[in-house]
Design brief:
Strand content: 25-35%
CATH class: Alpha Beta
Helix content: 10-25%
Radius of gyration: 19 Å
Number of helices: 5
CATH architecture: 4-Layer Sandwich
CATH superfamily: Endonuclease/exonuclease/phosphatase
Largest sheet: 6 strands, mixed
Distance between the termini: 37 Å
């Protein structure tokens, strides 16, 4: 974390649960990085850490609020500002943790919806429409979303909204990613069944932000090494301002 802070501090705001004295996450945590940009105002006081009470792996949900000035992002004449609450988390790992993972996902969805339904009149310093984005290594299986009754009303899956392209589906792919196969996952199960999963997902709530593109990152090996940046492919979503 100190290396990231030292190398990236001029280009990114970096928020870690270790910044929170009540975070209880000295050894395991996720980090939010927000690009420093004239169109983005970061409310540093809004940074929060929620320790999942059912986690046995030290997992948390973290979030922070941004104000996006649309006129500084596009040549179109859009004068509105959008308040975005950005969430990330690493949900409980492994098949046997399915119940805990579903409970954690349900909580995150509820926080997204709660933020979107809160009137801006109680936050006079954050005018305009609101949206929430939640993304990260969620360790999800499709059946788990189905068991929760599918996506809640108003929440969209960025990969699905942008066309559900099969080549962008799986972010855990030991057949292609040797970082993952070196962990002991060869990519094939009984009868040749593929062990590839869409573990990493991106959800959005709020009509003022429309997902328009979704892609994978980290598909090339780090120069000078035989390794990829991670055992997962990264995900990148692009959004356009929409009607509130």
């Amino acid at each position: 974390l100190q290396q990231f802070q030292q190398l990236l501090k001029d280009d990114y705001w970096i928020f870690s649960p270790t910044d929170n004295p009540f975070g209880d996450c000295a050894h395991y945590f996720v980090v939010l990085l927000i690009r420093r940009h004239p169109a983005i105002d970061v409310d540093q006081s809004s940074f929060r850490v929620h320790n999942y009470p059912n986690s046995t792996m030290g997992r948390q949900l973290v979030w922070i609020d941004l104000t996006i000035h649309c006129d500084k992002l596009t040549s179109n004449r859009i004068s509105s500002t959008i308040t975005v609450r950005l969430f990330t988390s690493h949900l409980e790992s492994c098949r046997e943790s399915s119940k805990k993972r579903k409970d954690q996902l349900s909580y995150a969805w509820s926080r997204m919806i709660q933020f979107g339904s809160t009137s801006n009149s109680v936050n006079n310093n954050r005018p305009g429409p609101r949206a929430a984005i939640f993304c990260g290594d969620l360790n999800l299986r499709d059946t788990e979303v189905q068991e929760l009754g599918g996506l809640p009303a108003g929440i969209e899956d960025a990969w699905q909204v942008t066309g559900s392209r099969p080549e962008l589906r799986n972010t855990w792919d030991p057949q292609r990613n040797t970082n993952a196969s070196r962990l002991g996952f060869g990519g094939r199960g009984p009868h040749g069944r593929s062990f590839t999963f869409r573990y990493d997902r991106m959800y959005v709530h709020g009509s003022c932000l429309r997902p328009v593109d979704f892609g994978l990152r980290g598909l090339e090996r780090v120069p000078g090494t035989r390794c990829f940046p991670s055992d997962h492919w990264g995900i990148l979503g692009r959004f356009q301002p929409g009607s509130a």
